[in-house]
Amino acid sequence: MSAQLEGERKECESQLELVNVSLADDPDNAELLGLKSELEQMIRLIDDSIAELKPKNEPTKAPPKKAPSPPPAEQKWSRENHPAFKKAAPAEEKDKEPEVIVYQVNDNVMAKWVSGDKGFYPARITSVTGSSTAPIYTVKFKSYDTVETLRAKDIRPVAQKRKADGTAVSSSSSAVGGAAASPAVPSPSSLTPTSTNNGIVLSAAADMYPQAQAANKAAIENNDEKPRPKFKKIKATKELEAGKNKWQEFNAKGKIGKAAKKESMFRTPEGVRGRVGFTGSGQAMRKDPTRTRHVYQPNEDLD
C-alpha cells in the first residue's frame, strides 16, 4: 500500500516540477498558482497517509519469554480466593476500529472548509485519489465555488430526514472494512433507524387514535339515523292577516299622498311682470297706474 502512495507522490512531484517551470515563464498566471497549491497540499496529505501506514506495517516485537516460576504452595483459605471478597470481572471491551466510508465521484457530502473557518458545508466530490484505506478526495463547495483536497476524516455524509416509522434514505456511500453492502431501500413502513441519523426522528406524519376515529364514525352514523325535526306551523293566522292588511293600507296611503300636489300660499307667478302676494286675502292684485303727462290749465284753480 505504501508503494502505491510513493508512486502517487512521485507523480505529483513531477507535475509540480512542470508547473514550476511554467511559472518561471509566466509567474502571474492564476491557474498555475492554484494548481501548484493543490499539488503541494496533495503531497502533504500523501505524506501523512504514509506516516500513518508505517506503524501498522512494522511487525511488533514479541517480549522475551520469562522462565516459568514454580507454582506456590496452595493455601487452604485465602481472602483473595474467597467468593465473598471477589469483585465482578469487568467486561472485556473490544476496541472496534471506525468504519471507513468510501465515497464516489459526484457524491454530495458535508466537507470541512480547511482553509476557512473549519466548518462543514455542502459540497460535491469531483475526484478520488489515494488508496482504498486512505482515500484523498477533491471536493467543490456548492455555495462558495471553492475547491479543497481533503481526507476521509474531513468528510461527513449528508444528514437525511426520515419519518417516525422509517429511516433515512441510504446515501451513495458504501461502508468498507468488514461492513456488508447495504441492501436496496425498503418501503417506509419497514424502515428502522440507522447510524447516519442516530435514531433521531426529524419529521413525523400526523396520526389519530383508532378509538377516536371509531367514536367519530359512530357519532356521524347516529346523527344520520335520527329524523330531522319538522318546523311547526303558527296557528294565529287571524292576527297575522290583520297586521298584514294594516301594513298594506298604510303603504297605499303613502303612495297616494306623495302623488298629490298642494298649492303653496307663498307661490310666485311664472310671468315676468308677476308680483308676489298672499292668496285668499279678499282683494285682487292691483294693476300698475298708467303714467300720463299733466297739462296745466289756467282756470283750473277757479274750478
UniProtKB/TrEMBL annotation:
Keywords: Nucleus. The keyword NAD does not apply. Signal peptide: none annotated. Pfam families: Tudor_3. Residues 61-73 have a biased composition (Pro residues). Residues 50-59, 76-96, 260-273 have a biased composition (Basic and acidic residues). One of its GO terms (cellular component) is nucleus. PANTHER family: TUDOR DOMAIN-CONTAINING PROTEIN (PTHR46297:SF2), ZINC FINGER CCCH-TYPE WITH G PATCH DOMAIN-CONTAINING PROTEIN (PTHR46297). Residues 101-163 form the Tudor domain. The keyword Nucleus applies. InterPro entries: Crb2_Tudor, Tudor. This is Splicing factor spf30. Its main location: nucleus. It comes from the Eukaryota. Residues 50-96, 158-193, 258-303 are annotated as: Disordered. It comes from Madurella mycetomatis. SUPFAM superfamilies: Tudor/PWWP/MBT. It is found in: Nucleus. Residues 166-193 have a biased composition (Low complexity).
